[in-house]
Records
---
Amino acid sequence: MNNESLRTNDSVDEILETYGKMVYRLAYARTKNRYDADDVMQEVFLRYIRCGQTFADEGHRRAWLIRATINCSKTLLSSAWFRRTSPLEDTLTTELEEKSEVYYAVMALPVKYRTVIHLYYYEDLPIAEISALLKTKETTVKSQLHRARNLLKETLKGELF
């Protein structure tokens, strides 16, 4: 399959069906709010439609969507508008199934730790790929994973046993 056919044969509906949940979960993990996650997801797929880029394979397309999600959520989280607003109470009535104590503990982590935890455990990405997506060193990703695990261990101490 050549690059042109990879881009032109896939409709936006098919791409949304294939990658929509992944993009939404990552956006939600970073923003901790379903409304902001919806906005990020919409922006990511608008960028996808506008970019007109050809992808070497599905792994390249997936990496592009993950990177776009990280960039869009970072833009939202650092915007002046976002810093000056207070979030509405989010009751988690979304389709996310992870409503355990572990899930809430992960959501309480700082965004940099939530991101690496999500990419490593929920998206099954290797450390090298996470490093490339986040544009950081592999040792940084390993350190963030280690720190996140330690924070989770402290938070969940005694609750699991």
Note: DSSP finds nine helices and no strands in the chain.
---
Amino acid sequence: MLLRVPHATGFGPTDIFHALSWPVFLLIIIVSAFALIKERLLKANRKNGFSDDVQFRPRPLLTKAETLFLETLEKVTPPHIRIYTQVPLIAFVDVVADDFSTRTSNYNRMDRKRVDFVLVDPQTGTVRKVVELDDRSHDRSGRQDRDELVDTVLGRAGIPVVHCKAQAAYDLAKLRETLGF
């Protein structure tokens, strides 16, 4: 005795292709290819993925207060020390953790943080000190949280950080003493 297995009653892609004539099928392929090419051309025309309605403008690297402080800092810093400005924290501090998730989350917490001034020994490339210029923005709670995070990271990395209050003018001897020069 033979057992009959009922045919699957589902509807699949082959059912569509049998119902289409070759010219219709060819038209679908051509239209799909045209749409794909058009999308790629549009993407290529947007230079580096930026849309045409986005503009970019240069802005000063330092605020007026930071520029004034930098001029003063250059006067009190020993000649064998280089000063770098607006340096991303992640550029000179590595996150070390055995667990990938822990390392990633801590990296992400400090990824977009920058410090105002980094004093570097050019002979060794070693960061000797970080100087933060504290203006009125540092009084905001969000900024205080950021400062605390930066101070914690630098402390754990063994990098001294000095906070200097922004002023209209600076006493060179006092600043030299504050920085330990």
Note: Strands lie at 82-88, 114-121, 126-134, 161-165.
---
Amino acid sequence: MTGRQKIMKLIYPVLIKVGSRLGFKSKTMANYNAAKPIHSIFDLIVQLNSGKEIKLESYKGKKLLIVNTASNCGYTPQYEALQSLYEQFNPQLEIIGFPSNDFKEQEPGSDEEIAEFCKVNYGVSFPLVKKSRVVPGEGQHPVYAWLSSPEENGWCRQVPEWNFSKYLLNERGELTHYFAPGISPLDKTVVDAIRQ
């Protein structure tokens, strides 16, 4: 862990507390109208950082939390909370991390370096895909195009606000919630949504 990463880990609890009090990056959105996707996310495929391809249809029947991640961000300690959530709810919940360098270049490493960092520092055992573009534009990962397009998912146009934006899908592949980066994966609103 670099010096910057150690400092970020130390200030993370303060960042979450202050952010939640000020409403900074703490938005939650829910699919209150139970809108159905126009196209199924289960039609998509992701490539893990190991090179192995996974069809998202293999996650049918499970909740799925999709999170864009970075190793040099103030929210990087959320890896620990994500791993805790994964251990608590797996196999009913799958988590997929999408390392991305889209926000202030806070994920500069290679896929191998990212995997090593996550395993050594946070014990991450949930899948990580190859480093991806998650914001709109040329090269945006198809999963993120689906997550942020109501023409695909049925209701949500929210793009990731920053690293560690979270999208929750139900067992049928319906997008049910968006949680902003400032909301911990272990926050009651996230846990309650998973338990629904």
Note: Strands lie at 28-30, 45-47, 53-55, 63-69, 93-99, 166-169, 175-179.
